[in-house]
Amino acid sequence: MSILTRILGLDSKPSAETEEKRGQYVAPSKFAAYLGLGTKAGVSVSEEGSMALSAVYSCVRLISSSLASLDLHLHRVNGSQREIATDHPLYQIVNSTPSEAMTAFDFWESIISDALLHGKGFALIERGEITGRPVQLHLLTANKMKQHVHQGQVTYTHQDMPEHIFPEDLLIIRCFRGVSPIRQHMEGIGLAMAAQEFASRYYGSGGNVGGVLSTDRALTNEQYERLRQSWQMTTVAWATPTRWPSLSTASSTSHECEHGRERVHQSAGPRGPRGCPDLPSAPVHDWP
């Protein structure tokens, strides 16, 4: 237990109430474990919730928007020649207007981002009543889709649609192995979220001490308690409750210093492969 903690009379072990009031990423442990969202860092991680982490947001935005901005051509092969089939019925759908509600860029950016977060992105193919040809592509919410296999036949269901959907009526964009990268790297993302939340609370509650009380001898627990109560009584009228002084023997712990370095690391902006920032690493402790 640090000197500052002893002065403030804080217990090193968080209470149940404190655990319940942690940031937006946290869910009750039993509920998170039931959904498969809990991590050892005490933070629940979901595909959409992970976008609150700047590293995940930057990577998903950069990859999806970059691919969506590329031209998507249909080619007609005529012998040894290949030409762009601008007269094909699908050309306008994939390049201009997939649906009445979305442009081509918005559609591909959305379905690719779904694939990056959930492992698969889905769009329902609307076909003409007479020709049976695709006329529109309707984006489906990926986290509402569920796959079923019955007697070797694969079908999908959507929470807002009563009937089963066959694969031939779906456009499916798959990420690597069709598995959510967020679920695969849940522990690493959870650790980064926990570090980000700790840093926010540390600096938001006045992590920098407001003054220094010095002593030339070690204090007993009783003396610590008297000092804490005396300071509260004399400064309650003007002191900010979260900005208490420390003794001159107190200093920032290695954990606090490490989180300070991590904030510098996070604020450096996108970099690394594909311009994406690395996730914050685990704190490096100073061992005796």
List keywords for this structure.
2 domains; 17% strand; disordered N terminus; 10 strands; three-stranded antiparallel β-sheet; 288 residues; Cytidine Deaminase, domain 2
Characterization of the model:
- The protein has helices at residues 3-8, 16-20, 29-35, 54-68, 89-95, 104-118, 181-184, 186-204, 221-235, 254-267; strands at 75-78, 81-84, 120-127, 134-140, 145-150, 153-158, 161-165, 170-174, 212-213, 246-247.
- With 288 residues, it is of the alpha+beta class.
- The protein has two domains: 3-8 and 24-45 and 185-275, no CATH class; 49-75 and 84-182, Cytidine Deaminase, domain 2, CATH 3.40.140.
- The strands form four sheets. The protein has a three-stranded antiparallel beta sheet. The protein has a three-stranded antiparallel beta sheet with strand order 5-6-7, with no helix packed on it. Strands 1-2 form a two-stranded antiparallel ribbon.
- Strand 1 and strand 2 (81-84) form a beta hairpin.
- The longest helix is centred in the C-terminal third of the chain and has 19 residues, at 186-204.
- Mean pLDDT is 75; it is low at 1-31, 237-244 and 280-288.
